Amino acid sequence: MRDVAALVKRAAAEGFTRGEIVSLLRAEGEAAALLFASADRLRAEVFGPVVHLRALIEFSNYCRNNCLYCGLRRGNRILRRYRMPPEEIVALARRAAGHGFRTVVLQAGEDPYYTPSLLAGVVREVKRLGVQVALSVGELARADYALLREAGADRYLLRHETADPSLFAGLKPDTSFKRRCRCLRWLKELGFETGAGPMVGLPGQTIASLADDILLMRDLGVAMAGIGPFVPHPSTPLATAAPGSVFLTMKVLAVTRLCLPLTNLPATTAVGAAAAGGREAALRCGANVVMPDITPLRYRQLYEIYPGKWRVDPREGSFARWQEYLKLLGRTAV
Ligand code: 5AD
Ligand code: SF4
Q1: Mean of the pLDDT values across residues 244-252?
Q2: Can you list the domains of the chain with their CATH numbers?
């Protein structure tokens, strides 16, 4: 406990070592409570009570990849697939902007149907609405990222999933950790506000490798870090694996906040799916962003990365209802 207090004090000045991060991730009881409180205090110092709301549009659940943990994997033959026409994506973004969202996140599986030039067209239309555009459409060639950046996309989310290269190789057969990192470097070079982030509690993942996740994000200088627990999906090879712990996820969030004070940290939908009140807990241990899912229900139900995801948001992606709700938590939504 005293160790945690001393470490936290030193962090801002010098940064944590790998060993220190590991010991913080092992904190239990009062020491963990102190870790959470320290992260919450730092979040409040940097961002005040402000929570950034970003409207999430999941526009296609097709994916050419076969990640072992994900319900959208191409091998999941029982999932009904959908694609939103470009006009529908733009119409949803327009509605979101009208309701007050300042950022729209366009997310999909890696779906080659949406060529980079088609996506660039969508980005240009959405940018005309006066909002920030974040993209989350996976690994592309550098030239394609450049095209999307030129079209006006401001941010790009590409979670690194795990910084353990052999675990990565076992879970993502279509790519490699090296390629993932190369994409992240390109995105940064092109001037995107770049987001990475791990899943917590993957089968075979160690505390030391979670420390490496945090160090990787620090080295990359990520602007965002999406951190959520692994939630097993019944139609994947990891159906019977143990779920990731919400407590450990909160510790990863809190240490990430301490290591990366200025980074935007979402209270992810996965942490809300893994435990009732999970997102609220995340907002109290360092998180400063929520991404309400504004995808129409008929599609959202099919965007089943992990089970129960579509049911997590009781405020149905409504900006006004999120504003009201966050007010109850003493936070101001913008
Ligand atoms: N549990 C939790 N998160 C998952 N993701 C994919 N599958 C799962 C799962 N079973 C996350 C990955 C991916 C993002 C879109 O969703 O981190 O990058
Ligand atoms: Fe596709 Fe992403 Fe799911 Fe992998 S995690 S199968 S790339 S949607």
Answers
A1: 98
A2: 32-333 (3.20.20.70)
